[in-house]
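Query structure, 266 tokens:
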């Protein structure tokens, strides 16, 4: 590499719940010290929220952080089949609650999640991130009826308006066992490399990451990728690219050019 000066990073903090607020506050202090204010907080509505904890969410909004929906309870009540069992063992470890549901159940969960923000007097969230980035058994077109504008999947950011997926490498630091550390480190190395061609990267932070084995890698990445964007900028950038292409060429040429550039949005 290294063209990390021109790569735009989306920074998110996962699993905002009453029991993690202390860690979240400490993370935000560190991000502020690193001059990072474009941070999206992924909130779990079905946790045991007290009025004081809800006040903290209002405070986050006042401080300019964007809140996003992140599942409902962030844990599963049952394992739904072999695929889910494998995912639970190797990736999500019992948090991918969509995988235990059918399509109707998934839609109901996401609607309940969105409604909760309004009930608490918070701004309507535009982004939804399924726990462990696992959307489950639901067709993409079923998402069009939901009130969210964007979805973050394992592979990238899906725009609800256009139905387009923007593939985007993802960095993670939840190295809570010795076995996960080398796997995550290799994964991150590959994804940093991918970011230099894609032009975007996601930095997904979990509440305890600063106390875990990849804390130094996380701090280094926050420093390495110095341009921080809001999630909404992904769609805005795609729109702009679309307009540029459309104004430069005939509409049919623009169409084919868009599909060619889909896996490489720069
Ligand atoms: Zn999560």
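Result returned for the query:
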């Amino acid at each position: 590499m290294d063209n990390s000066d021109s790569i735009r990073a989306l920074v998110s903090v996962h699993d905002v719940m009453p029991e993690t607020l202390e860690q979240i506050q400490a993370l935000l202090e560190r991000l502020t010290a690193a001059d990072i204010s474009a941070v999206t907080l992924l909130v779990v509505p079905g946790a045991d929220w007290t009025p004081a904890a809800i006040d903290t969410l209002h405070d986050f909004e006042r401080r300019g952080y964007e809140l996003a929906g992140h599942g409902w309870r962030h844990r599963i009540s049952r394992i739904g089949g072999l695929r889910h069992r494998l995912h639970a063992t190797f990736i999500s470890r019992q948090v991918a609650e969509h995988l235990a549901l059918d399509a109707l159940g998934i839609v109901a969960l996401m609607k309940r999640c969105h409604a909760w923000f309004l009930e608490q007097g918070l701004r309507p969230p535009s982004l939804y991130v399924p726990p462990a980035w696992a959307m489950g058994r639901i067709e993409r077109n079923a998402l069009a009826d939901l009130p969210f504008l964007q979805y973050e999947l394992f592979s990238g950011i899906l725009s609800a308006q256009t139905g387009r997926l923007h593939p985007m490498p993802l960095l993670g630091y939840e190295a809570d066992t010795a076995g996960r550390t080398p796997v995550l480190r290799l994964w991150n190395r590959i994804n940093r490399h991918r970011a230099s061609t894609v032009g975007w990267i996601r930095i997904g932070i979990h509440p305890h990451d600063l106390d875990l084995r990849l804390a130094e890698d996380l701090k280094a990445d926050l420093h390495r990728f110095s341009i921080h964007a809001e999630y909404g900028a992904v769609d805005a950038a795609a729109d702009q690219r679309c307009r540029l292409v459309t104004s430069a060429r005939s509409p049919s040429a623009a169409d084919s050019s868009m599909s060619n550039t889909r896996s490489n949005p720069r």
